[in-house]
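does this look right to u?? adenosine-5'-triphosphate version
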Amino acid sequence: MNSPILGCSGISVRFGGVQALADIHFEAMRDEITAIIGPNGAGKTTLLNVISGMVTPSHGTLTFEGRGITALPAHERAWGGMVRTFQNLEIFSNMTVLENVTMGCHGRLSLPAWHSLLRTPKSRRLEDEVRREALEALDFVGMADLASVTAKDLAFGKQRLLELARALAARPKLLLLDEPAAGLNIAETQVLADLIMRIRDTYNLSVILVEHDMELVMRISDSILVLCFGQTISRGTPAQVQKDPKVIAAYLGGDED
Ligand SMILES: Nc1ncnc2c1ncn2[C@@H]1O[C@H](COP(=O)(O)OP(=O)(O)OP(=O)(O)O)[C@@H](O)[C@H]1O
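got this back:
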């Protein structure tokens, strides 16, 4: 039976007078794509930030692979296999595509600095390995031919895929995607949807995504959490969530009755 990779229990976050999240209970299952949706200001990004360790909840606990991680800082969560992408692209624009992706491998594949300084055989082997894995990730997102291009010269859609390739190169167990389709056109969004499903199936990893594009969410998600004003208003499969009157009222702008 499938088990949760991530668990949130009673998560609350307050920013001054704003209750951004109130008592959120939520599980993301292994090898599944879980979407977090909701209207503007619902608390989606805040929840993603709590999961990745960038925001500390005022209440509640988090588990990752069954272990408590509530007090674990963001970088330790990343070492443990939780890797995220950002709504505003965070690529190194003056570096090449390949150099950007190799950044994803570091941390996982690293040696004490003196190995690199002295260019020991071990450090050269490691460099080869990093390069091979980075190229593999680029190939997976269909960008192997762009490896030597400077990142800032890529079209926006390709920059988004570059960020995804870098995240993949870190070999995550849980991939957190913050609005991966933002700024993409319809054709690029289709490519992205196929890619995210292929990532789940090929790498056997779990994905949590925050996304506004409902077509994408309904097409690729195994499970959806719907937030509104910091509260959970619905959870379930795309089919269940789509016909939930609370979701229709709050998110899709319909009537509850
Ligand atoms: N750092 C902060 N300081 C103060 N208030 C914040 C902060 N971050 C978020 N908020 C508030 O918390 C609430 C939830 O914001 P959040 O960004 O998580 O929503 P969201 O669902 O991701 O919205 P959007 O779809 O517009 O990105 C909002 O009312 C927002 O204004």
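The chain has two domains: 1-81+172-257, 94-161. idk if thats expected tbh
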